[in-house]
Amino acid sequence: MLTPSERRRAKVAVLMAVNAVPLVGVLALDWSLVALLSVYWVELGACLVGAAVKALFAEGKPTYDANGFSWLVFGALSEKRGRINLPVLPLSIQVANLPVILVTLAVGSVGWLLFGAIGVGGVGETTGATMTDAESLSVGLGVLAVVVGRAVDVGRYLLGGTYASVPPQQPLRSALTSMAGTGSALLVGGGFVIAGAPAPFVLAFVLAVKLLADIVDVYRDRLEAFDERTSVDLGFAPDTPEWERIESSREVSEIVRPKPSAVVVGGVVRGLRSPLAVVVGAGLTLIGLLSTATTPGVAVELLGGAVVVAGGFTALGVFDWSFRYLAMEFRVCDGADGASGDGRLVGYDRLFGPQWRLASESRAELERVRSVTDRLFGTETLRLERDGRVYRLPHLPPDAVAAGGRSAVAGGPASA
């Protein structure tokens, strides 16, 4: 494991090499402003992809609020605790990392396209400059060099074991900071060109802003340390919570599992009841009904579109509910005195291991509810909201939730 100073020196070496490529291109190969911005634009994309790879294998606990990812599929991923081991490499993918990576890639891709359209496309359109064959070749080699530089940075991160102690937000936040700095250089530089500023001034400005953004990224750990030591909140202090340890050494006295068919049907209901599915489906149906009198055939096409939308959301709902609960089992553990049913309740995923635990006194607080799916299959659902999180034990056999039963998972008044 590398020390912070060693990581910083290695990162400085990589970034100096990466920044030397466009500088050599401008000074020695007579690159135009369009060529320089093109290299920086590609580097932005490589930086974003590299950060996503780093975050994919980060083993620290994610620091985002899972309630913000309550949508279909994203919610299932954000609430699932566990890793997927790779078959060859000694690496694993933490399931809870995926939502923040996907959102960052979506937002970063929009920014990347915007920077390219204004910074590169706008400058090229304004100046009318085109790259010569020799310049295109050198720019291609420059692009290859910055991409290799970012790949080396990712390799150093993985081989050095840094991924074992950082949350996924850390590399993603670093990449977004770098994108903000370089993207600002692209946007402002493009604005200067459109406003008629001289090319040497714009070149110097872009190089300076890019270098400054990289320096801030390299010395981010020192800014974090300063932020932690002082009362001044600069926003650099890292938030590194740890996963709660779930003891599984106690003897299990009872195991209850959801009814698989009810879980699948519950996913269908969840998908169709999604607010977005209702809005899109209702909108297409309404437009189709209004168009019936004026445009023959449109109503049928829109109705077909509504069916496709409903099918898509149904598939998402089934995946969401199945991923959450199909492999789950709820274990009643013995208490300290060995009495059956007096211990804690553990939610255990047969694929990913223990997910959560509730103290013995919390079992009596579980609320018994019956959804449409429960009424259809003769099952019941237990629910508890605590500390901003909803614990749900869906579609259980009635005898498992019978109040006062010797083998009951929980008791309490039923509610419709």
What would you say this structure looks like, in words?
With 416 residues, the chain is α+β, with helices and mostly antiparallel strands. It has two domains: 4-229, no CATH class; 252-400, no CATH class. It is 56% helix and 11% strand. It is built from twelve helices and nine strands. The chain has helices spanning 4-27, 33-57, 74-78, 98-127, 133-159, 169-195, 199-218, 220-229, 260-272, 275-291, 298-325, 372-377; strands spanning 83-85, 92-94, 252-256, 328-333, 345-349, 353-358, 367-369, 380-386, 389-396. The protein has a four-stranded antiparallel β-sheet, with no helix packed on it. Strands 7-8-9 form a three-stranded antiparallel β-sheet. Strands 1-2 form a two-stranded antiparallel sheet. Helix 2 runs antiparallel to helix 6. The radius of gyration is 28 Å and the shape is flat.
